[in-house]
Amino acid sequence: MNSYINEISAKVIEIRRYLHAHPELAFEEINTSKYICKILDEFGIKYKYPIAKTGICALIKGGKPGKTILLRADMDALPIKEEVNCDFKSKTEGLMHACGHDAHTAIMLGAAYVLNKMKDELCGNVKIVFQPAEEGVGGAEPMIKEGVMENPTVDAAFAFHVTHLCKTGQILVKNGPVMGAPDEFDIVIKGKGGHGAHPEECNDPILTASDFITTLKEKLVLNNTVVTVTAVEGGATYNIIPDIALMKGTARSTDVDTRNILEGRIEEILKAVCKAHGCTYDYNFRYMYPITVNDEGMTNIVRKAAYKVLGKENVIEYDTCPMLGEDFSYFANLVPGAYIKLGINGNGKGEHALHSSKFDIDEDALKHGVKLAVQTVIDYLA
Ligand SMILES: [Zn+2]
Ligand SMILES: [Zn+2]
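A: This is the predicted complex of the input protein with zinc ion.
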């Protein structure tokens, strides 16, 4: 395994740099996916393409019968103007790989190379999924709908995500919830407009909206949730109270039971506030990515694999689940899965958070990612 990893390490960096220089947004990963297909062809690995517009599923059949493991990489970039100066800086103005999906794809291609070399020894199959549109739109669900979990049927799923929160060569692991549900809501408050000099003759939707926002902060006290109104729109000038006001917001949770009551709790507050101001409302709550929950058994497989390839001291346990969303949850809802955070902070790089215009990674992390992915597959299939 180590000799194959050494063989491919320089190529993995080259892949990451190419992808970094050529970022593409969700479901527009045309060049990215063609590039990935070209590499898979070079490696002699079979794949299905396209799935869900730009997705790819590579399949490595082991020499011996066994289970099927899925490794997931995401491919999309973000609408951010890169502020990092490097030889492989984004060539597309205003787009950037600021979430490390270039690294995820490079790591999984490296793992694909190594596992393909070792396929005769593998007891089972490896599916490597290159997924479009992780950022907001969601490419996992359409890939599943197009059959990526079948033929052969997937038994377990794993994904790594880079993080600046630990050093290169370290990983962050946790059982249970690891990423939240980033649900969204839209509200229209319908009042009665009129002259700005005579609010007593109106049912002011702007005043109602502001009352709703403060009441929400005071009254909506639930564990493991964050509810934030992120957009307010209403009125256009100085002397007119408008008829309506619009709001958008995010309702995030990291616990399934709490998530289930959140939609109703927000509406209770909205209803009471609107009633007090003589207004009515439209309310639309949208369920987005599910909560990502790490299966204890699968997480232990990665832990033990990491003890072997990174050392036990480099496996860091954490317990707070962030409120960010992740559509790997669709895979982990169907089969036991684990979502692991891979440290990229070292050699003076990887200090900035995900989605920062200064985001960069210590490329030594790529090799650790390949090692961990390969060892996880070997240990799971064994
Ligand atoms: Zn992101
Ligand atoms: Zn990401």
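The chain has a mean pLDDT of 97. Residues 68 and 125 are 5 Å apart (CA to CA).
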